[in-house]
Fold this protein.
Amino acid sequence: MPPKTRSAQRPRRKEKKNIVAGQAHIKSTFNNTIVSITDPSGAVIAWASSGEVGFKGSRKSTPYAAQMAAESAARRAQEHGMKKVDVFVKGPGSGRETAIRSLQAAGLEVGSIQDVTPTPHNGCRPPKRRRV
């Protein structure tokens, strides 16, 4: 097997994009919260999740972990000149409101908040009830 050449893995250069307005997509599940900040066309500029910020296991699903993830994503987006976002929230998790509040606290102006949680028209059978 031939040795791998260094030229094949060239490091990607991070460009400052200078986008003023965009969208913040918050996906909050029972186990994790993922915050993606995109430009108006939907290309991801910055993202963060509870696990990526440093939380593991059951701590990922806490509102505090969602707050830290949203702050991290907002800071990275502001490096590209982001000032105003429209928020789209998806999922039933505990970090929804906290993530929106921390986006505002980080200095992003929140224009509109929309819930885009997909609801089935009686599709798949849900998992059975937990007996604790």
Observations:
- Residues 5 and 105 are 46 Å apart (CA to CA).
